Amino acid sequence: MAGNPDPSATTAFTEADAGAGSGADSGLTGAVAGAAVAGVAELSPVQRLAALQATVVAALAAVPLAGLSDVDSVAVLTVVEGLGRSVDAARVAVAAEVGGRAAWIAPGHSQPALPAALGCRDGLEVIVRATRISVREAKRRSRLGGFVSARIGVGVSLAPFYPAVAAALTGGDLGVEAAEVIVAGLEKISARVAPDDLHTAERALVACATGAVTEETRGLPGEGLAFGTDILRGIVLQWQARLDPDGTAPTEPVLEGRSTFGFGTLKDGLYPLRGGVTPELRGIMNVLFDTYLSARAAPAFPTPAEQARIDGGALVPGAEAADAAAGSFGGAGDDRTGGEKRADIVHAVFERAARDPGTPTLGGAAPTVLVHVNAADLQAGTGVGWIDGVQAPISLTSVTQRLCAGGSQTVLFGPNQEVLRLGLKERFFSRAQRRAIAARDGGCIIPGCTSPPHWAELHHVIPWWAGGLTDIDNGVMLCWFHHHYIDRDGWKIR
């Protein structure tokens, strides 16, 4: 609010709000009824819209959704969506109109009259108050409206910047979401593309989104099909590359600078990932996932023979049959999603990088995850462990896995947390032992798992807490996934 508006301004806003149909249905209905009683033949635009709203509300309420057949329920869904597209188009148009009026300064005045009359700072606040939508949504509608609404020139009305989008949007054939995808995509290249080429792409994209057949799409695969917004985004990228093939290279340094990766605040036991990657890095990640993530439930790694077929183009990574070996983790017992499997692969990638001799040292030593656990809790099998620099605890299952694979070191604290004694590092397989076990096992020993040695961890067959020795005869190779669940899923190693 810009100061305290006078009562007349407040009253003016309230009446305008009621006339727009925002939360004042009873007032509008009363206006319609009053007009009918008075015998007025012609209703105002506001009254006609209010009457139409009442008709639509009544029609929707009369639809017995639960009693419809499957076919009819889908038909109703389609009709209602079409109705929504028309309403959304009107929302965009009216928001753009009100925003334009609120920005206009009359001759002899120093500021726009409309916001001041309603006690608002600007047109955006007028829209927000009249519609009770968020500032973000108001900006979204106004921005799109600026591209698809007619423009006012010097004494003449000009066509919208994107006339094909505007026509399809107004006709109810194109949704706001698809319109935004098209406009945003074409705006990125509009300064470097000839207007005729830009409008050719616009017409083709509108046809792809609505299923219309135009000169641009006639005879092409998918002619006459209406594609969803997700597919439409990909088609927009193809048009960008076609019309502006040199436009990507100059932006790569900028995108590289904007690439980022980090962690959000702990929520429900997980740290959400924040950031974005360049198309190049996304491609590298996709190849990595496709190579190591097969149709089996557990992450699978190509055998040398499979890798040779992949290199020769005879085998598509991830497309192999899902008939995992009997007794392997590739059966129906693994209900992890694709995202969970990818997370396991990322886990293995970072474990491998930490063990790589070429990885820089940290404080004079290889990157080492320090896990702290109370000795009494560990002996009792209860409690949790803690990792340096991480707020959330980890389970004792993860603690014992770390101890099994990486060893431990006992620290005795005094009553004031002073270190009284630092024990020797124990239960850690040496590099020589690892090489020997890798030569013997050739990778993860679980049937059906193809994880190679450099992706695997070393596991004590007889647990260290049961007196198992850290030597070659008591060590086997397991990938991270199988190592984590080896005890839970009942595997016995002899």
UniProtKB/TrEMBL annotation:
Keyword Disulfide bond: no
InterPro entries noted in UniProt: DUF222, HNH, HNH_nuc
Origin species: Cryobacterium fucosi
Protein name (Swiss-Prot/TrEMBL): HNH endonuclease
Residue stretches making up the HNH nuclease domain: 432-484
GO molecular function, one term: zinc ion binding
Family designation: Belongs to the Rv1128c/1148c/1588c/1702c/1945/3466 family.
Keyword set includes DNA damage: no
Entries under Pfam families matching the protein: DUF222, HNH
Keywords, comma-separated and alphabetical: Endonuclease, Hydrolase, Nuclease
